[in-house]
Specification:
The protein has 400 residues and is an all-alpha fold. Helix content is 66%, strand content 1%. A two-stranded antiparallel sheet has the order 1-2. A hairpin with a 2-residue loop joins strand 1 (244-245) and strand 2. The radius of gyration is 23 Å and the shape is globular.
Length: 400
Amino acid sequence: MPNPIAETNFRVLYGKLFAALTRQYGVHRFSEIEDAIQNSFLKAVKKWKPDSSPKRKEDWLFITAKNDLLNQLKKNNKVTDLESEQTADFSETETSDLRLETVCMVTSSSTLTKQAKIVFVLKNIFGLSVPEIAENTLLREEAIYKIVRRAKNSLQTEYKSRLVSDTLKSMSSEALRTVEEVLYAVFNTGFDSFSEKNKSIVNEDLCLESFALAKILLKDYSQESTSNLLSLFCFHIARLEAKVDADNLISFFKQDQNKWNKEMINLGFHYLKKPNKIDKFYIEALIVSKYMSAPSFDLDFWKDIIRLYEILLQISPSPIVEINYCFCLFKAERKEEAMGLLEKLEGQLATEHTYLSLLKASLLSESKPKESQEITAQMITKMNQEIRKRYLLENKFINL
């Protein structure tokens, strides 16, 4: 018999509840809202049974969290008459997705840094764990806790007397770019999940949630950059089925291309738009499209990809892009340049990065096999996910 708790995606529901309650009760109630949602989840775990779980789970959790919030406020004499009269049902909300509305509110902040906006949304709207955020942002975990705490305080001050819905009327181009960055980060977390709770390397829910919200964003604001972001999502989603087979991770070059979703690939090309001003999502979508349509991965292919990465490094430099560039140099038989870049990156990254370490093991596999094996062994020891451990053990070295 199915377990109603196990079937429920609490990560998605957390973001929806957080957004809905913030819309109704305001950002100054952040702390009470977080407690109320946690309490409603705890009650669900205790009360929901396989033969008697609520049909409308989102509504049940919303009402339970709302009542818990009001009880907290009444207990501390904080509730206002307006708050006590709030009766809206979770399903009666008028916008297509309240999470996007809250993301727009956070990204419109004039006091938060771009980094703080992304980290806050990843944790509070999409329910990512601090280790997951650390892996994707290359920030230390203690730094993430500080950023979230400070962001909450800043937002409470900035939006104390403003409605969340008002921010949608005055979204700046910069705020829209940050919304896209958030959706991009959420998608990447889902596409290459490092959560030890996930048996699979893919969290498909996160990928599809990001895709759905990006579609709403494109519909509402018609930005070319959003269209190219959707293109990128489509190309990645197209090969989700081929990425994992029988609980085993399959590297890109070994995937069964018959399993690639042709409709999603076509949709990826449909969304791919050459912009007036080149942006990172256009170049990244272009790179993935070339990977998925190349007749062979010869030297000319890698030269083309390297040129695209060099453009990407000019318009959107980051250690992750440099690691990918390094890999391409290696595949294009420019190993000395790849090793030089690798050494530079090792000095820049605050913590030992999984992909960087595995790439180093690959680069050293022929010239220094013992050192390469030691690096791989260390990474296997550190790895929490069984699927990644199994992949490393079976392949010995990284083999993208």
